[in-house]
Backbone:
């Protein structure tokens, strides 16, 4: 057992791409935890997708031994947090396992929306914050400006901010010294009953559910019987240990320590992020604060392109949800697309990552319908239904009112772009709340905006309308009534359920018209004419026509042309495989996402 | 592998006076006096001699000298080449010997020389008789040059073909129809009508990407192809293949070899060779095997290629193929239902729709043995 006075638990927090993972790697290197020849870029991001996209999706905790300048050896637990707004709750739980945080700000980019959001989370968790200005090796680095932004915008003293470069390793030693001297040692009662916070959990096929935990009071060891307070699940501790970063079993995890715990449980939903672990015998009933149920915000229909892949898709979803309690799904049947699933996600990134993993790790060809949110439909008979799919929308006559989820959005931009953000966000039904100057070069705008608008390429538009300067953070703000209608898309006169979507009444006409135009471009010519219509109920708002194919033959076919022609026919065949036959119309996958790309 | 005798010989001449805007063929613009061309022709001569010694040329029924622009390399090099051919294979009048030529490099002397050395069919790259359209294509000749070239050629040769391009952005229906009519009026015996395709790495492609040239309009192309068929059929031509029209007796035997599965030998840069026996077919280009087909794939390919021709696919061939392609009858029935083919006189033949939307038709047959 390490004396708590020689333990430091901390996180590194940052806006995406500000260099958090690279800094973490340098810590492992500098402390000799991983020999540099074994270093793989961004070691803590274990999934391929994480490494490729340069983002962190799951939390990680690694323990390093650091001999400080005072000659003492400290146990440092570095908790790497997810770097995306979809995972704010996970971040908040990871932070709750720490006493301090290193706030990384890019020396060229300055303070951005997630810098603010993460700093707020860290302050709310009462963490000691060590500002660190990263990437100072870049020619465009402006440490003085960034220091001013941290002080003015975040009210964090930044005179002593560590100047560092994850790339060259400069300043990493200073950072660790600051961690040892500025971050408080964990407090807690070694003799009190066990209380430990779960800040991540995942399913391991060989050992069952593994949890990453922070021991707040007491201790736990192999053989202890434990209970999760929120889920009431009980388990036997099969192993405890720390990651260095390879898992190393330990005799016990005691007060103040961070480590992993093997439960042998089969269902990850028994071991939820934010829940409290205690002993079955002599345990507590009072959970640690801050637990909440994670609820999916964005829903989409996932359908196998090849109907035979329905069962494999189901198995793949089962496997992924073992590891991801935020992923929920239920069977969905579409007339157009056949059997599939309606899947709920924390946000758009979560959705993209899951879809990519399903396709890549499980070899599935999937078709995703446009993402939707959870609408609350209050029916005239007093019943309320939660609508995840536009298909389930009741008849307009049965609807008393519809409510949709709203977000509080925080946008950080240079002052020049206030107008551009104003135009875009108002157009997306946003309501302006207020605006503050964080510094002469950074404005913070607060908005209320429907989630359904945000998931329609809002962020892409925001980025492009502000030359990439804008950064965005948001949190759920509750349900509000809206005038929403279901817009149907008809191909050859037949409504295509998978293309229908819910839209504000005032926007239905424009969206319908633009979508018809867009679909006309996307749907290739067929052997017959295909009319495309947008309609509400029986009322057609817009129409376009994909003309019948007139000619596709390529004339020359001599000698070597024949080989080329074979390749072309192979390509044509592959192209057809990526399309979905709806009725007798071949519809490419992009069609189902077209609604997201609708420019008005 | 032991292989059936080659029946057709193709010789590629990859040189031109300049590269046209639509061209993605294997050719290069080179000064006609360049020693590179001499070297290339010498190599061809050696290869022809070698193949003759190996006995590969004993069953050749058709010869085709294509390009590039064979006429561009001039009389003396062509004479050397043709003389070698006449020593190496049976170059009698019943053996079809075609050569490609462009109007700007045709003169009386060239015609006389190649005629004397055995060329009995000339395919002239006219493309259009409209000077505005020729300028868009980047051709090196005018409409009048083309007319004169045809007239020179006709002094010695009876079997003259011209190529025309349809559906060029900026080409009106009238302009296209006038070119077709002009070719008919000049008395050529064979006309090929190719809808323009814009290939990657061509100047046209770059122009389209930059928005300087409108994309090819498939409706225009279909309309042009229909007009060509109407004019030509009315005036005594038979459409014997998707893009090929001939007066009776003037079908291009060499091209038919490609579409009826006869083995061919290609000499010169990028020329394709097809070697086969009863159970295997390979195509080779520049020493690389581009296709290696089994028996089922051979049948599917033969049927697919024959569906380009008005002669179509005889019931006897279908019956033979059925052993290897058990689904053939089902697929033919489905194609008939959808209007791509029809059954007349003991053969399946493409309909007008089957000609215009051939890729749908060929794709289904290709899928029988991909």
Residues:
């Amino acid at each position: 057992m390490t004396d708590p006075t020689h333990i430091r638990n901390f996180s590194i927090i940052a806006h995406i791409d500000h260099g958090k993972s690279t800094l973490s790697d340098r810590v492992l290197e500098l402390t000799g935890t991983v020999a540099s020849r074994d270093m793989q870029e961004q070691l803590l991001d274990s999934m391929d997708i994480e490494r490729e996209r340069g983002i962190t999706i799951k939390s990680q905790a690694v323990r390093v031994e650091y001999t400080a300048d005072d000659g003492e050896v400290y146990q440092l637990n570095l908790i790497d947090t997810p770097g995306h707004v979809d995972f704010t709750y996970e971040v908040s739980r990871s932070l709750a396992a720490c006493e301090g945080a290193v706030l990384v700000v890019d020396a060229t980019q300055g303070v951005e929306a997630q810098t603010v959001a993460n700093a707020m989370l860290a302050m709310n968790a009462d963490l000691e914050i060590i500002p660190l200005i990263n990437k100072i090796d870049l020619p465009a680095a402006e440490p003085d400006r960034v220091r001013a932004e941290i002080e003015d915008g975040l009210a964090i003293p930044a005179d002593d901010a560590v100047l560092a470069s994850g790339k060259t390793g400069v300043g990493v030693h200073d950072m660790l010294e600051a961690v040892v001297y500025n971050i408080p040692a964990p407090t807690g009662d070694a003799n009190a009953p066990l209380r430990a916070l779960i800040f991540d959990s995942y399913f391991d096929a060989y050992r069952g559910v593994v949890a990453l935990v922070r021991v707040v009071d007491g201790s736990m060891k192999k053989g202890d019987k434990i209970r999760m307070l929120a889920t009431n699940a009980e388990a036997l501790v099969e192993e405890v240990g720390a990651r260095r970063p390879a898992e190393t079993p330990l005799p016990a995890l005691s007060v103040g320590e961070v480590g992993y715990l093997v439960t042998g449980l089969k269902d990850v939903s028994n071991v939820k992020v934010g829940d409290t672990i205690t002993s079955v015998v002599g345990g507590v009933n009072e959970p640690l604060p801050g637990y909440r149920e994670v609820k999916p915000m964005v829903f989409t229909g996932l359908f196998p392109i090849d109907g035979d892949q329905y069962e494999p898709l189901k198995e793949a979803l089962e496997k992924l949800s073992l590891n991801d309690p935020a992923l929920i799904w239920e069977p969905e049947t579409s007339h157009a697309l056949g059997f599939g699933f309606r899947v709920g996600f924390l946000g758009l990134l979560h959705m993209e990552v899951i879809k990519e993993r399903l396709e890549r790790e499980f070899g599935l060809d999937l078709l995703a319908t446009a993402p939707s949110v959870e609408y609350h439909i209050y029916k005239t008979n007093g019943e309320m239904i939660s609508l995840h799919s536009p298909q389930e929308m009741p008849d307009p006559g049965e609807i008393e009112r519809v409510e949709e989820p709203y977000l509080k959005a925080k946008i950080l931009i240079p002052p020049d772009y206030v107008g551009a953000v104003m135009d875009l966000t108002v157009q997306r039904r946003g309501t302006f709340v207020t605006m503050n100057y964080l510094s002469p070069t950074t404005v913070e705008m607060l908005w209320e905006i429907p989630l359904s608008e945000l998931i329609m390429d809002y962020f892409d538009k925001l980025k492009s309308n502000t030359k990439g300067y804008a950064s965005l953070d948001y949190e759920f703000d509750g349900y509000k009534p809206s005038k929403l209608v279901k817009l149907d898309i008809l191909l050859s006169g037949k409504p295509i359920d998978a293309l229908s979507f819910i839209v504000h009444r005032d926007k239905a006409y424009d969206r319908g018209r633009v979508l018809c135009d867009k679909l006309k471009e996307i749907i290739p010519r067929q052997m017959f004419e295909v009319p495309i219509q947008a309609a509400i109920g029986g009322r057609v708002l817009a129409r376009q026509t994909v003309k019948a194919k007139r000619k596709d033959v390529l004339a020359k076919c001599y000698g070597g042309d024949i080989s080329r022609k074979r390749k072309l026919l192979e390509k044509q065949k592959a192209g057809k495989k990526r399309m979905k036959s709806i009725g007798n119309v071949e519809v490419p996958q992009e069609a189902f996402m077209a609604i997201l790309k609708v420019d008005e | 592998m032991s292989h059936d005798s080659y029946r057709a010989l193709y010789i590629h001449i990859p040189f031109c006076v300049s590269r046209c805007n639509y061209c993605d063929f294997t050719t290069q613009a080179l000064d006609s006096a360049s020693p590179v061309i001499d070297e290339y022709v010498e190599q061809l001569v050696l290869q022809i001699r070698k193949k003759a010694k190996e006995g590969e040329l004993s069953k050749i029924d058709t010869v085709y000298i294509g390009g590039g622009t064979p006429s561009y390399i001039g009389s003396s090099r062509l004479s050397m080449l043709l003389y070698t051919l006449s020593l190496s294979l049976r170059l009698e009048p019943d053996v079809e010997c075609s050569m490609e030529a462009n109007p700007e490099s045709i003169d009386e002397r060239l015609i006389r020389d190649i005629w004397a050395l055995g060329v009995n069919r000339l395919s002239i790259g006219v493309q259009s008789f409209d000077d505005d359209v020729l300028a868009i294509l980047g051709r090196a000749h005018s409409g009048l040059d083309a007319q004169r070239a045809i007239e020179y050629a006709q002094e010695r040769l009876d079997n003259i073909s011209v190529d025309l391009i349809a559906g060029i952005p900026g080409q009106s229906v009238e302009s296209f129809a006038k070119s077709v009519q002009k070719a008919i009026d000049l008395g050529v015996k064979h006309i090929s009508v190719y809808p323009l395709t814009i290939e990657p790495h061509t100047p046209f492609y770059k122009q389209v990407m930059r928005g300087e040239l409108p994309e090819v309009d498939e409706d225009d192309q279909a309309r042009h192809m229909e007009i060509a068929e109407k004019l030509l059929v009315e005036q005594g031509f038979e459409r014997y293949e998707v893009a090929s029209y001939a007066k009776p007796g003037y079908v291009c035997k060499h091209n038919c070899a490609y579409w009826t599965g006869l083995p061919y030998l290609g000499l010169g840069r990028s020329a394709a060779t097809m070697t086969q026996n009863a159970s295997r077919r390979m195509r080779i280009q520049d020493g690389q095997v581009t296709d290696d087909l089994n028996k089922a794939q051979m049948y599917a390919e033969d049927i697919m290629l024959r569906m380009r021709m008005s002669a179509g696919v005889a019931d006897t061939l279908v019956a033979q193929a059925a052993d290897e392609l058990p689904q053939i009858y089902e697929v033919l029935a489905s194609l008939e239902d959808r209007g791509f083919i029809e059954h007349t006189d003991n053969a399946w033949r493409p309909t007008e729709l089957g000609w215009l939307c051939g890729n749908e038709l060929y794709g289904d047959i290709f899928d029988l043995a991909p």
Summary: Chain B has a mean pLDDT of 94.
